[in-house]
Amino acid sequence: MNPELIDTLTLKNDTKIVFLILDGVGGLPLPGSDKTELETANTPNLDRLAGSSICGLLDPIGYGITPGSGPAHFALFGYDPVKNNVGRGILSAAGIDFPMTERDLFMRVNFATVDKSGVVIDRRAGRIDNETNRKLCRKLQEGVRLNSCDVFFETVKEHRGLIVLRGDNMRDEIEETDPQKVGMPPIPPKALTPKAEETAILITELTEKAREILSDEGKANAMLLRGYAKYRSFPSLGKRFNLNPLAIANYPMYKGIARLLGMTVNQQTNTIKEEFAALRENYEKYDFFFLHIKPTDSRGEDGDFDAKVKVIEEVDSLLPVITELNPDVLVVTGDHSTPALLASHSWHPVPVLLSSDTCRPDSVEQFSETECTRGGLGRLPMVYLMGIALAHAKRLTKFGA
Amino acid sequence: MNPELIDTLTLKNDTKIVFLILDGVGGLPLPGSDKTELETANTPNLDRLAGSSICGLLDPIGYGITPGSGPAHFALFGYDPVKNNVGRGILSAAGIDFPMTERDLFMRVNFATVDKSGVVIDRRAGRIDNETNRKLCRKLQEGVRLNSCDVFFETVKEHRGLIVLRGDNMRDEIEETDPQKVGMPPIPPKALTPKAEETAILITELTEKAREILSDEGKANAMLLRGYAKYRSFPSLGKRFNLNPLAIANYPMYKGIARLLGMTVNQQTNTIKEEFAALRENYEKYDFFFLHIKPTDSRGEDGDFDAKVKVIEEVDSLLPVITELNPDVLVVTGDHSTPALLASHSWHPVPVLLSSDTCRPDSVEQFSETECTRGGLGRLPMVYLMGIALAHAKRLTKFGA
After folding, report:
1. What is the number of other CB atoms lying within 10 angstroms of the CB of residue A70?
2. How far off is chain A from B50, nearest CA to CA, in Å?
3. Nearest CB to A28: which of B1, B358, B378?
4. What does the alpha-carbon distance between residue B161 and residue A189 come to, in Å, rounded to a whole number?
5. How far apart are CA B235 and CA B238, in angstroms?
6. DSSP character for B232?
């Protein structure tokens, strides 16, 4: 089934849908154990909810495919993650709320340190702080002029920034200059297709001028470019599904995805508790809520099984903030798995529970990977989750007569 | 998900993957019983492995579709079995290691017996032996000359041979001449599309000349043609997935499939035990192993339930030869089901187990059709198996940023 079939069936009503997304929640047991992080965590609230919900397992992209955060979130919101795959530059731009135009080319930049021979000796320039980053961006903004396009230098965080080229016929098929390891010089930004030649020349000019300007810096004396992405627009979630959505996230990347899909992004929060509070405060004003929990993924990436367990337990303890609001549909899942065992994203499917008045019961009594294998939803591509949520919210009409 | 998405994500590393394929392993209970062949067999090694593996059920082509061996194996190796469906002639040619060229048209031939009126009375010419077959092929090779193309007569086994026409504009849309039952004359090789007219004329000429040459034979006095297939090439498994694959099979057909996909084919083995020994001997030299077990299918085709059970038990007893090598990924499955009850291939899904260090546990404790219905892999199209195996071997990089 084409995931866009539901677009033709949406209805408007007063129901409310909450997507509680524990980033990277899916896990694996450590050697010698048979329990994942989620199965180890003490989660009385999630388990009670699982007992009255319908559960299953979601494949973000497809069997065996480990997703990046971008495509995994596209799938969560019902956007085909392969057709809508974008370079990370545009997610960065959306994340810092950069005012994008159709003529823009976005690049992620790392400030880095090179030695006298031009070899990269630190890909993160000693993790400079935000203030230093802002100073560097101002210096580059004042000093770099390009022949045929505008250029913008924007701070993201620590050593990370965003560069935007605004001009005609920009292309993103360009070699990334980040060698991905130290001991090598930056890679020249060659065109990967003939049509990208002009842009490659501009980026070469940009890197040369920037090198000159940064040459007197101690640490941040070089730039490494990656994640090139030409501007593209997406049909908004609100329009596709007749929703008025609010995104609550502590990290720029996820706000960026939400903005690209036309969601309203809540003001800055910093803790999980603040995110739950923001949901309660804004509950009357919106009808779809994307509440993003980052540390499950971060602790998984750290390889810290116990810390990931603790994050899950914290989320469980806050769950009543949502259940007391009694949303018509509450979905709890992740965007992908990040087992502490692997200290990285993985291809394993993600447990999901969907709670509503119209759930057919299944035999799952605990929110866990193993129990979810026998859930009533079965195992399905993540991109279909949104349609199921809309259906339980009575927001989809009949197909055909 | 397009099964070729994984091609863009493959990585090279030192991990090893073993595909142990029990041809036609899936079965059905006999009337009055509730156990399939696999469930009846005493398989302590497979059951122990299933306990620590992730299990599921594979559909070779799709729901309700009974596959031939060719497409089923294409699916096993991650090739879309419908897009890559080929006539059996090319599999026969690959099976006997015939040096193919792009101008070739392949046909399977059965030597057969016709009576004086030209009616087929034995479709297998009394199952003549290989030596007789070779004599007939030599006689035909010397006697048959065609106007505008070269022709090659090759022995396969017993009454089965291969004919190759080499010339320009060969087409394979031709009526098969094998009437598939006795009591009828061979069918004329009519063109099924206008473009195949020229080839049809050549094949008519071929059959007439052959009939003349064979007319003095007692048993093998006719030829029945089927499985026409124009040459086509396939992207090699090794290149697609960055693998160095070895195929171990006792039967020509499966070597043929392996050759078409660019695998190295091991020297001739004749017993299951020899096949397992060959795996052990070659373990250091390759990183992907296709070990094909034929008699599970043959005994199923014979309708011999007990004999099929015995073959499964023999494979189980040899399983430690593989598990002692401790491959990073071990997959045990079949290409399709061949229930003795039906004495033929069937559409039933095939049980699969995948063993690796990164398996999320499921509750399956026995390798059987029934237990696999509640495995963590769920039920999935067979074409996705290869991607899952590559993922567990850490041979796929992340999709998207």
Report:
1. 26
2. 15
3. B358
4. 58
5. 9
6. -
Q: Does residue A124 contact residue A289 with C-beta atoms inside 8 Å?
A: no
CA distance A4 to A349: 22
Residue B252 has a pLDDT of 87
* End-to-end alpha carbon distance in chain A: 18
- B308: nearest Cα among B46, B25, B58, B43: B25
Residues A222, A112: contact at Cβ < 8 Å? yes
Tell how many helices (H) and how many strands (E) occur in chain A. Answer: 13, 13
Contact B398 A85 (CB under 8 A): no
- Whether A318 shows a pLDDT value over 80: the answer reads yes
User: Once rounded to an integer, what is the mean pLDDT over residues B339-352?
Assistant: 98
Answer yes or no: are the C-beta atoms of B351 and B318 closer than 8 Å: no
The pLDDT tens digits for A81-111 are 999 998 889 999 998 999 999 999 999 999 9
**Which has the closest alpha carbon to B171: B192, B152, B187?**
B192
CB B258 within 8 A of CB B236: no
Q: Which domains does chain A have, with CATH numbers?
A: 3-85+235-392 (3.40.720.10), 91-230 (3.30.70)
Supply the pLDDT for residue B109: 96
User: By C-alpha distance, which of A279, A284, A287 is closest to A242?
Assistant: A287
ipTM value for the complex: 0.90
Among the partner-chain residues B376, B390, B400, the one whose CB lies closest to the CB of A71 is B400
Find chain B residues with C-beta within 8 A of A63's C-beta.
1, 380, 384-385, 387-388
Please state, rounded to an integer, the average pLDDT across all residues of chain A.
Answer: 96
**CA dist list (Å): B117 to A68, A215, B109, B221:** 70, 96, 21, 12
Rounded CA separation A381/A71 (Å): 13
Across the interface, whether the CB atoms of B384 and A348 are under 8 A apart is answered: no
Mean pLDDT value of segment B156-173: 95
Displacement of CA A5 from its chain's centroid (Å): 24
> Is pLDDT above 80 for A48?
yes
Q: Write down the pTM of the prediction.
A: 0.91
Does residue A159 surpass a pLDDT of 80? yes
| H or E segment and range at residue A353 | strand A350-355
